[in-house]
Amino acid sequence: VAEAAEAAREAVARTAYGGTPAAEAAARMAGLADAIERARPVRAARGGAMSIPLALAALTAGPAVAGGSTSASADLQADARQAWEAANGDYRAGDFEAAAVTYRALLSERRDPYLLADLAAAEWQSGRPAAAAARYLDALELAPREAGIRGDLERLRAELGDPPGLAAAADRVPPVRVDELLLVLLAASWLGAGAVVFAPVRRRRIAGAFVVASLALLAAGAGGTAVAVGGGPDAVAGAGAVLAGRPAGPAIARLPEGSALDVLERGDEAWRVRAPGLPAGWVASGNLVPLD
């Protein structure tokens, strides 16, 4: 499937930028859909909606949009939306695995907090609550003030027994975004300019100094807030995660599923992590869900 997807991407790029006939790209796209169908024989045999080929075909066509027309872009958006709706249909039908695969395919092209929340819900229903917690945290990185995503994570936390570190990771104050800081500074600069212009002559110097000091404090405070909350967790403990003093060594402690971890070092077989309330140790990489 990966080889077919790469061949399809190359063919679409040649059509978009090299002027080669579209028939080659169409053939490669058909080959990609066929590869996915052969990789999922059970789903194909039962006649289910093949949302995965549809999603990957829409994503593979992405490079053509840059060199194509507005109608091509609209068609691509329609295909992606159709894939998303098909994944939602799989979810409603109880086929959470198929829905999760399609959500991941769509996310490989565009990171969206609500799509991440969709994937989290599918992971949760598929029996992978640690992966669901990681995806909810990913979604909150993009939309930290979204109450619906926070509410879903709260329910998952309760189901997991409120594992260590997850509450702090979910509840931390969102950092000040650059666009928010710039808007506040712009408004403050206009207010300051007005204060300087319309203040009496003898008070303009005082007003100007006050404005400069206020802007400096605002910038320092916003920057400090961003730094203070910027160091979130790097991974979530999966089921059966065990903390050891060395890779593949004897266990120090068992980590509750869903625990938020700071990753200190990454190895091929194990990662060195720090868990809340425990010394740094090593956890098998297969028992960790990294945060994107």
Biggest sheet details: 5 strands, antiparallel
Taken as a percent bin, the fraction of beta residues is 5-15%
| Helix-strand pattern | HHHHHHHHHHHHHEEEEEEE
What's the pLDDT, averaged over the residues? 79
Q: Radius of gyration, Cα only, in angstroms?
A: 25 Å
With strands numbered from the N-terminus, the spatial order across the biggest sheet is: 6-5-4-1-7
Residues in helix, %: 55-70%
Low-confidence spans: pLDDT under 50, at least 5 residues? Answer: 42-55, 57-70, 226-230
Calculate the terminal CA-CA distance, rounded to whole Å.
23 Å
Described by the principal axes of the CA atoms, the overall outline is extended
- Structural class label: alpha+beta
Count the strands? 7
Number of helices, counting only DSSP H or I runs of 4 residues or more:
13
Description:
With 292 residues, the chain is α+β, with helices and mostly antiparallel strands. It is 64% helix and 10% strand. It contains 13 helices and seven strands. The strands form two sheets. The chain has a five-stranded antiparallel beta sheet. Strands 2-3 form a two-stranded antiparallel ribbon. Helix 2 (22-39) runs antiparallel to helix 4 (51-60). It is extended. The two termini are 23 Å apart. The model is unreliable at 42-55, 57-70 and 226-230 (pLDDT under 50).
